[in-house]
Amino acid sequence: MPSGNLGLVVMVLGYGAGAGLSLLAPSDRAARVLTAIGAAIGCIGGLIAASSVLVTRVPVDATFGSLVSAAGGVAIHLDPLGAFFLLLVALVGLPAAVYGVTYTSEYEGRHSLRLFGLMFNGFLLGMSLVPCAANIFTFLFAWELMAITSYFLVMTESQYAETRYAGLWYAVMTHFGFLVLLPMFLIMAPGSGATAFADLRTHAALMSGSAKSVVFLLAMVAFGSKAGLVPLHVWLPRAHPAAPSHVSALMSGVMIKLGVYGVLRVVVDFLGAGPAWWGGLVLAAGSISALSGVLYALTENDLKRLLAYSSVENVGVIFLGIGAGLVLQSYGLHTLALVGFGAALLHTLNHAFFKALLFLATGNVLHEAHTRNMERMGGLIKGMPQTAALFLIGSAAAAALPPLNGFASEWMVFQALLSGVQIPQPDVAIGAPLAIGVLALTSGLAAACFVKAFGISFLAMPRSEEAARARESHWSSRAVMGVLAAGCVGLGLAAPRIFDGLFRIAGSLFAAGSSASPPAVGRLWLAAPNGVAQVSPLLIAVAAALAIGVPVALLRWRGLQWRRADTWGCGRIQQTARMEYTSSAFAEPLRRVFSELYRPTEDLTINVHPDSRYFIRSITYTSAVVPWIERAFYDPVARGMRACATQVRRLQGGSVHLYLLYLSGALMAALVAAWWFR
Amino acid sequence: MIRYVAVLLQTLVAMALAPGLVGFIRWLKARLQGRRGAAPWQPYFELRKLFGKEAVISHTASWIFTATPFVLFGTSVLVASVVPLIIAPAGRFLIGDLFATVYLLLLGTFFLALAGLDTGSPFGGMGASREMTVVALTEPTVALSIVALALNAGSTSFSQIVSHTLAQPSAALGPGHLLAFAALFIVTLAETGRLPVDNPSTHLELTMIHEAMILEYSGPYLALIEWGAALKLLVFLALAANLFMPWGIALWLSPAAIAIGLLSFVAKLGVLAVAIAVLETRVAKLRLFRVPELLSASFVLALLAVMSTFLVR
What we know:
The complex is a heterodimer of chains A (678) and B (313).
Chain A: H1 3-24, H2 28-56, E1 60-64, E2 74-78, H3 80-103, H4 113-129, H5 136-154, H6 161-188, H7 197-206, H8 209-227, H9 236-242, H10 245-271, H11 276-299, H12 303-330, H13 334-369, H14 380-383, H15 385-398, H16 405-418, H17 426-429, H18 431-458, H19 465-469, H20 475-493, H21 495-507, H22 511-514, E3 526-527, E4 534-535, H23 537-558, E5 562-565, H24 583-593, H25 595-598, E6 601-608, E7 616-624, H26 628-649, H27 656-677
Antiparallel strand pairs in A: 1-2, 3-4, 6-7
Chain B: H1 2-32, H2 42-51, E1 55-58, H3 63-82, H4 98-118, H5 122-153, H6 158-167, H7 169-172, H8 175-191, H9 210-213, H10 219-244, H11 255-282, H12 291-312
Helix pairs in contact in B: 1-3, 1-10, 1-11, 2-10, 3-4, 3-10, 4-5, 5-6, 5-8, 5-12, 8-10, 8-12, 10-11
C-alpha cells in the first residue's frame, strides 16, 4: 500500500479508535488519555498522508462507491492543496491533543469526558476529511461532521448561560453556511449522477459568466461564514471564548482556515479566472475584516475574545492575498497572481501556529487566574515565566515582528498587493495602494493590540489574588507550546523555502500556473515578484542577534552595577495595582481616535446626598463598545425571522384534522410538481 | 568582503554621529530661543556619565525591562546598517528592504512599550499606550510613502530607489516625490518623538510620550535607550534625505566615493537638523487628540503622492 493511502487509513482508524475507546473508557482519567492517544495516532496518519502527497506530488485516490451509494458514494482525492490543509489539521491537532490530556483534567466529575473524547476525535476527523473529499456528498458529510462535533465541544461548559448563547450563535451561523453551500453545489453539478469534483471542474468551464458569478458569491458567503469574514464573523468572538482552550486553538487555528480552503477550491480551482470584480470584492471583504477585526480586538478586555477578533483580522489578511491573486489572475498576470495565493497560504500556515500557541498559553492563564478578564490579571510573568515567554513569542509573531513567521507572510502579502500596480488599468491598479494602506494600519494596530494583550496580562503587578498566586502548569502543556513556538520561529526563518513550496501548490490549481516558477533567489531570500526587493528572515535574525548580543556582552564584560528599588510613585508611599494602567485605559486613545467606528456607549451616574447635591455618595461610570456592525446587520435579520415565525405559527391550529389536511395537500402538491417538472 | 567592511564603517559612523546630531539640534534650538545652551557634544558626556553609573531597577520589573534597552539599541544599530546612509551599492542591501526596516523599528517600539508597562508605573502605561497609538497611526503613511517611491523605482529595494532617482533627477522634483517627502517628514517627527507630536525636553506627565515610557530607566540602560533613540532619529533623517535627495551617496566602494558620501551625508543631516530646530522653536506641542489629525493629514499627503505618481506615469 502506498504511504499516502496507508496514512489515510491510519488517520481514520486512529480518530475512530480515539472516539470509540474514550466512549467506553472505564474512568475519566482513562478517557482523557485515550482521547489523546487516538487523536495523536490520527494526526500522525494525517501527517504521513499529507507529507507523502506534498513530497511525491502524486495525489491519493480512493473511492467507496457502495458506501451510501444513493448519495454518490464516498470518494477521496488528496491533491497538494488538500494535503496542505490536511497537514495544517495534523500539525495543530497533535499539540492540541497532548495539551488536552492535562487541560481537561479539571473537567473530571463535572462534565462527561467520554462524550468529549468522542466529539474531539470526531471534530479532528471531520476537519481532516474536508480537504480529502472528492465529491459533494463526502465534502458535505465531513463539513457537517466538523460543524456538529465542534458545536458539542463549544457547549462543553454548558452550565453557563453565556456558553449556551454562544452555542446558539455558532449553530445558527454554521448551518446558515451549510444552507448556502447546497445551492452552490446544485448550480455547479452538471447532472444528478455527476457529483464528483472532477465533474464540477469540467462543468464549470461550460458555465455562463453569470452562473459562475452566482457560484462565486455563494461560495464567498458560505465559506466566508466559516472563515469569519466580516460581517459573518459574529460567531467567532462568542464561540472561541466559550470553548475549552485547546478546542479554541483548533477552531481558530485550523477550522476557520477550511473556509479559506473552500474559497480556493471552488473559486480558484473549479471556476478559474473570473472578472476583476471578484478579486475586488475579496479585497474589500479582506480589508474590512482585517481592520474591524483588529479594532475590536484592541478594545476587548476578555483575552480569548481578543484572540478571536485577532483571528478575524488575520483571515482578512489571508483574503487580501487571495483577492490580490484573483485580480491579477483576471488580467492574465499568472505568476504575480500565484505570489498572492502563495502569500495567502503562507499566512494561513503561520497564523495556525501562532494563534494555536496563543490560545494554549491563554488556557494556562485561565487555569491559574480563573478569569478571562485582563483587568484581573497582571504580573503573571513572575509566577509563570515560561508561559509568559511563549505567549510573548506568539504575540510578536501576531504583530508581524521580524524575524518571526508573521512578518514573512505579511511581507509577502505586501509585495503581492504592490504588484497590483502593474495592472494596465489605472482605475483598478489604484486599489492596490489603498489595500496596502489598510494592511499597514492593521499591522500597526495589531502591534498595539498585542502590546496590550501581553503587557496588561503578564507584566507589572497582579490585579487579583489569583493572578498573584498563579504558578506554571504541567510540563507537558509547556512542552507542546514550546513546539508551536519553535514552529513560529522556524517557519519565519525558513519562510523562503516554504514559500517556494506553497507557490507550487497554488500553481497546481490552474493550467497556466503549473509552469510558472517562483521568484526565487537562493534559499535565504524571500523575493518580490520582480525579484529586486528581497528580505532574508534568517539573516535578519543573525544580524539582530549580533546587534543585541554584542552590547550585552560588552556591558557584562565591563560589569553592570545595579540595585532594586521601588517604582517611582510621585512621592506616594505605596504603589498599588490599582494605580496601574488598565486594559481599557491602554486602548482609550485609539478608542477616541476611532470613536466614529466604535460608537461607545457611556453611562455616568452620580449619586448625591438627598440634602445637598454637593455631597457625592458615589459615581458610577460604565462604558462599553458594542459592535454596532453586528447590530446593524443582524438585528433586522432577527426581527424578520421573528415576524416570519409568528406568521408561520398560524398554521398550527392544534387540530388533528387540520394537520391531516396539510399532509394530503403537501402530498398532492409534491405529485403535481413531480409530474410538471418531468 | 569589502561590502561588509563598508557597511560596518557606515554603521560605526552612524553610531558616532547620532549623539552629536541630538546635541546639535538642542544647541541650535537654544540659540534660536535666545539661550546659550549646552555645547553640541554634550550628549557624548551624558552617555559617558550614564555608562559609568549604577542602574536602579524597580521591584516590579521583569526581564522584559532589562532586555528592552538592548533590543531597542540593537534594532536601531541594525537599521542603521541596512539603510543607505553613506553607501548604496547595487544589488541587495544586506538583509532587507524598506518594509523590513519599518518592521524592525516596530520591533524596538514593541519592546519599549512593554517595558513601559512592566514597571507598573502609571506613567509607563500612559507612555506605552500613547506611543503605540501614534505608531499605529503612522504605519499607513509610511507604507504609502514607500509605495510612492516604489512606483517610480519599480521596487521597494533601497538601492533600486536610490539608483533610479539618480538616473532620473526630474522624478525627484515631481509631485509624487515631493508629497511623499512631506508625508515622511511628518512621520519622522511623530516616530522620533519631536514637536509637535511629543516634546523631547519635557517631563510634564500630561504631555510626554517617549519620556514617560523610559521614566524608570537609569544608568547604562538609560544610556543605551538614549543612544538608540538618537540613532533612530538619525536613521529617519537619513532616509528622508537619501531616498529623496540621494546625490553624493557612494554607489561604488572606492575611498574617494565614500569620502564624498560621508561629507554629503553630514551636510544633508545638518540641513534637516536645522529644519527640525527651526520648526521646534516655531510650533507648540499639539494636544494628544489633535495628533491623529496631523497624522491623517500626512496620510492624505502620502495618498496624493501615490495618486500623482499614477497620473504622471
